[in-house]
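Workshop exercise sheet. Pairs work together: one partner reads the sequence aloud, the other fills in the structure field after running the prediction. Swap roles for the next sheet.
Pair: D.N. / O.F.
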Amino acid sequence: MPIAENDWIKIDYTGRLKENSKVFDTTLEDVARSEKIHDDKRGYSPLLCRVGDEKFLIPGLAKKLIGIELNTPQTFDIPTAEAYGQRDSSKIEMVPTKRLRKANLDPRVGARIQFQGRSGNIIWVGGGRSRIDFNHPLAGKDLIFDVTIVEHLENDEDILKEVISRRLPGVDLSQVQTDVSDDKETISITLPNYLIFMEGLPIAKYSLATALRDFLEFKVVNFIDRFDYNKDETKKDPKKEETEENQDKQSTKEEES
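Structure field:
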């Protein structure tokens, strides 16, 4: 059955520059390795997105997925206007290099940095100043995408599990409790206690809350920390305990002798 607009799906893709077929991104680890763009810091798995929604995909690709069949490889040409747009000279700015150093940034040509809430590439350094290009790296480029829809998620519960597992990699979903309000505007999440020791947990929670807002349109996300120390212990026989205690005492006396 063809995929319809607003359906939730997972896709595998490989993006290439039209001018030279160079791969710039992929969800397939074997392709990333063969193209020498593999990044150990990222995971390689199908991308979760909503068909036709430009919040998750560039405009041209978001629209082209409508009507595609599951598990049917497709190749799409995406022109610049429907990808990342034309380069904008107003997004190239000159800043004092000392401001970059003060922000603990490396003022080096070619470095990609986060500065004042924006991503940019340093394209020139000299005379105490640095020029930063805040255009998207693919601005002004025509693109080609090889795409396969690998899964169709048909209910909110599956989408919820997918979002949680992506923002908290390795979490045991059977130990995650969720409670959604009747109006579906508020969700309360109880995470397993072992995640307390997870490095960067506050940031992971923020990322998860943001994703739940973007993906499932929750207005309030509550995280609940609950420590349950109740143990399912079998009842002990007092007489048996007394006998065992006496035996321990007798053993101690014999050892001391």
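Discussion prompt: The helical segments are 29-34, 59-64, 97-102, 156-167, 201-216, 238-256. What would you look at next?
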